[in-house]
Amino acid sequence: MILLVGLGNPGKGYAGNRHNFGYMAVDEIIRRHSFMPERIKFQGLIAEGNIGGTKVLALKPTTYMNLSGQSVSEAMRFYKIPLESIFVLHDELDLPLGKVRVKTGGGHGGNNGIRSIMAHIGENFSRVRLGVGHPGEKHLVTAHVLKDFSKPELAVAEKIIDSIARHISLLIAGNASGFMNKLSLDTAPPKDQGKDETKGN
Description:
This protein is of the alpha/beta class. Helix content is 36%, strand content 21%. The chain is built from six helices and seven strands. The protein has helices at 21-32, 68-79, 112-121, 141-145, 151-172, 176-187; strands spanning 2-6, 39-41, 44-51, 54-61, 86-92, 100-104, 126-131. Strands 2-3-4-1-5-7-6 form a seven-stranded mixed beta sheet, with helices on both faces. The chain is globular, with a radius of gyration of 17 Å. Residues 197-201 have low confidence and may be disordered.
């Protein structure tokens, strides 16, 4: 079984926040792949499904971001899921909006949800880092991540979420580089059709 975790804060007031990027991505995976209805368990909302022949548990901790590790560790222990089968989707300050990176292990990058998960289960799980950009000053970070995406930003975020949901089977199958290549192709800006540098030579 694969455990897909989307990080965020529960409640309508947080729904459109940059900090809820992980929730948004997991919601679209659940929808696109016709998972079972969500239910309350492990201090979160869980939904079970199948992607590419692999059983997948989607989890959105409802502990609030800073305590996400409590929920993740409960689900991990109950289903005896190894660290290498856990993927956490979360907002990432160190990447600009529009960029997604997958990595295993490492630090928390200032994300308190990742910090909490590391404290409960260790660091060698995979992270799908969803760029939201950095506001430039450390004291502005909290306000930045707890603010809704602007309309233009949301259009970019939704394009990424759609691509993640369509290609998540690659990641689950262990092909992280193929997954990231597909995302890069889907989210690349359109080439300028008006230029033809061969003319006039």
